[in-house]
Amino acid sequence: MRLGVDVGGTFTDLLLHDAATQRTYQAKTPSTPEDQSIGVANGVKLICEKAGISPSDISLILHGTTVATNAVLEGKGSRVGLLVTEGFEYTLHLAKSWTPGPLFGWIVMDKPEPLAALADTRGIPERMNARGEVVKPLDREAATRLIDDLCSSGIEALTISLMHSYANPDHERVLAQIVKARYPDIPVSISSEILPEFREYDRAITTVMNDYVRPIMRRYLSRIETRLKDDGVHARLHIVRSDGGLMSAEAASERPVHTVLSGPAGGVTSTVMVARRTGLGRLLAFDMGGTSTDVSVVIDGEPTISRSTEVGYFPAKVPTLDVRSVGAGGGSIAEVSELTSSLRVGPRSAGARPGPVAYGRGGTEPTVSDANVVLGYLPPVLLGGDMSLDVEGARAAVSKVGEALGLSPEGAAQGIIDIANEVMLGALRVITVQRGLDPRDFGIVAFGGAGPLHANALAELLGCYPVVVPANPGVLSALGFLESEFKNEFVQTFIRSTKALDAADVWARFDALAEKAAHWLEEEKVAPQDRHLQFSVDLRYEQQGFEVTIDLDGDVIAGKASLEAVFDKFHATHERLYGVRFHVPVELVALRVVATGATTPVEEAAAITGGPAAEAIIETRPSYFNGEWVETPNVDRARLAIGERVAGPAIIRQYDTTTVLLPDHYAEVDPHGNLLIWPNAKGN
Question: What region holds the Hydantoinase/oxoprolinase N-terminal domain (predicted)?
Answer without folding.
Answer: 2-181
